């Protein structure tokens, strides 16, 4: 997997992951020296090259085996090099979450992009109305949404594909009933510059764990989504759609259920594609997704590995059993659980060895509070490896991420870099 090192040019202090000793050096040349973690600064988040490659291959193989397409959610990483790796592995296209993210993906030259979002920014809509070669799909869940889009796409060089989003009571966005969704579809069909191109939804809005009750709720919603698609077919509301009608669901928590319920609709030759939008799988995690990942419910799926890890240096031992490390909310995710202490590099340079019994109990902006029993004897200068929860709020804190060969090795080495684009 080739990422960004060869395109970065000289490294400098704009990126907090770049060590002082590398300022002014070409990124590819510096990386070729295979620096170790001791040569990189803290706080730090690294990506694991082996885990990234494994995760990309695992989800692509799963999608192929169950018979659906994959359009990974790009908001997880906002890293064009990672997007390219996913596409090179066979993904149909990319999903984004905002109008701005859509423009980033199109400027990167992607030729199939779905905005899982009602794009209403007039400037973006007028931009999309210009001649383009990429297929773009956007969502709408209300007749008012369609009306707001209409004046900006009238006279477009080609129609803008619109998917009707079905939601549900207590959910997020989405029409609250099949009847309401059908009215949206009729409005799209009647609006010049728009083309009804399928149905969409997000099952993760209705459940937050893998309990039998939650899985039942998810599956019921997915059956409703399939029913909406069949209703639109029965009423002959779909026009001819180049590239096929799209039925899409599937975040990173329940993509197995999506395949179980919807894969039977997948018929590219007949003009229908079922598209799964999972995105967090590419980095996975050591928290929320580790606990809910569908691969644990599948007999024949390969493993997903956490690809992102934090590294924090002990900078203070102000009282017994308490260490302060130099990574905080500006560096590490905390919205789906605090980082977990996994290992230690004594003095910041010794081999990485497992560490059990230490716990991150709080994060300030730039500090982690680490509690530990006396026998662990953490010292100023020790570097901790931290497992992280929720990749979507990990990548956004880093404009440039170092990629190591294997974060779980005794002495990981730098092999590449990943550039992110978060505006």
UniProtKB/TrEMBL annotation:
Tell me the keywords, alphabetical order. Answer: Lyase
In this record, what's one Pfam family? Ala_racemase_N
This protein's source sits in the domain of life called Bacteria
A single MF term (Gene Ontology): lyase activity
Q: Cross-referenced InterPro entries, in alphabetical order?
A: Ala_racemase_N (IPR001608), D-amino_acid_metab_enzyme (IPR051466), D-ser_dehydrat-like_dom (IPR026956), D-ser_dehydrat-like_sf (IPR042208), PLP-binding_barrel (IPR029066)
Acetylation as UniProt keyword:
no
> D-serine dehydratase-like domain: which residues?
307-405
Extract the SUPFAM superfamilies matched here.
PLP-binding barrel
Please give the PANTHER family that the UniProt record associates with this protein: D-SERINE DEAMINASE, ZGC:162816-RELATED
User: What family does this belong to?
Assistant: Belongs to the DSD1 family.
What is the name of the protein in this document?
D-serine deaminase-like pyridoxal phosphate-dependent protein
What organism does this protein naturally occur in?
Answer: Kineococcus aurantiacus
């Amino acid at each position: 997997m080739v990422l960004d090192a060869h395109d970065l040019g000289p490294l400098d202090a704009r990126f907090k992951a770049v060590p002082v000793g590398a300022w002014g050096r070409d990124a590819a040349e510096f990386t070729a020296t295979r620096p170790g973690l001791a040569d990189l600064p803290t706080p730090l988040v690294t990506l694991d090259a082996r885990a990234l490659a494994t995760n990309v291959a695992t989800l692509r193989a799963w999608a192929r085996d169950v018979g659906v397409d994959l359009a990974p959610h790009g908001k997880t990483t906002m890293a064009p090099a990672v997007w390219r790796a996913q596409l090179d592995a066979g993904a149909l296209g990319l999903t984004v979450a905002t109008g701005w993210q859509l423009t980033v993906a199109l400027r990167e030259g992607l030729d199939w992009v779905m905005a899982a979002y009602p794009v209403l920014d007039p400037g973006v809509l007028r931009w999309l109305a210009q001649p383009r070669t990429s297929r773009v799909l956007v969502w709408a869940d209300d007749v008012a949404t369609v009306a707001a889009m209409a004046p900006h796409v009238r006279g477009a060089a080609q129609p803008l594909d619109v998917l009707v989003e079905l939601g549900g009571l207590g959910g997020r966005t989405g029409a609250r009933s099949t009847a309401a969704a059908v009215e949206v579809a009729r409005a799209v069909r009647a609006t010049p510059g728009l083309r009804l191109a399928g149905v969409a939804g997000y099952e993760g809005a209705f459940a937050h764990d893998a309990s039998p009750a939650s899985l039942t709720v998810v599956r019921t919603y997915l059956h409703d989504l399939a029913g909406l698609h069949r209703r639109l077919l029965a009423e002959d509301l779909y026009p001819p759609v180049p590239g096929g009608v799209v039925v899409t669901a599937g975040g990173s928590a329940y993509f197995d259920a999506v395949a179980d319920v919807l894969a039977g609709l997948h018929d590219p030759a007949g003009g229908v594609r079922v598209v799964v939008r999972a995105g967090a799988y590419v980095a996975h995690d050591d928290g929320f997704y580790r606990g809910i990942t569908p691969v644990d419910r599948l007999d024949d799926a390969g493993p997903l590995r956490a690809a992102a890890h934090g590294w924090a240096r002990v900078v203070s031992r102000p009282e017994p059993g308490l260490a302060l490390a130099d990574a905080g909310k500006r560096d590490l995710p905390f919205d789906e659980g605090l980082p977990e202490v996994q290992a230690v590099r004594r003095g910041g340079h010794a081999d990485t060895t497992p560490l059990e019994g230490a716990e991150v109990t709080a994060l300030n902006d730039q500090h982690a509070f680490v509690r530990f029993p006396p026998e662990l004897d953490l010292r100023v200068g020790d570097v901790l490896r931290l497992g992280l929860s929720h990749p979507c709020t990990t990548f956004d804190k880093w404009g440039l991420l170092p990629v190591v060969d294997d974060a779980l090795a005794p002495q990981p080495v730098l092999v590449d870099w990943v550039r992110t684009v978060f505006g």
